[in-house]
User: Fold this.
Amino acid sequence: LLIERILARKGSDVAWVPPTASVTEVLATLRERNVGAVVVSDDEGQTAAGICSERDVVRRLAADGAGTLELPVAEVMTSPVVTCEPNATVEQTMALMTERRFRHVPVVHGGRLAGIVSIGDVVLSRVQELSDEAKTLHDYITTGR
Ligand code: AMP
Assistant:
């Protein structure tokens, strides 16, 4: 199963902010879009200069205190961003997330952002695939078809 199948269902829209956005603005975007991370883009969402997740903000708040909220996201984000292509497999992308310990992977096609998948998206799609496979095997065993 390929990442493009997940994007076909959820769409190619990516929540992004410019590098000059404040951490407060990032938090507002996370809440409005109901997501756990935003891509930081200096070209209107065409490419990813960085990524900022809830975890970056929480860590910086714990280390530096409330002043964090006024910082530009460029000072809090992770860069470079690890991305995948739409023709990556769901299994490969899950392994990447597990190894690198992050829960978001922007998808890039032809050098441009083409979507983003979260660990929730890849786990759901993998569970569905395995359950379809189990059903096929079960039907085969019980009916011979
Ligand atoms: P997450 O698990 O996605 O909330 O992110 C955990 C940490 O990894 C945070 O510091 C993120 O900025 C960073 N991170 C998340 N996704 C990526 C990615 N695709 N490439 C690089 N760093 C990432």
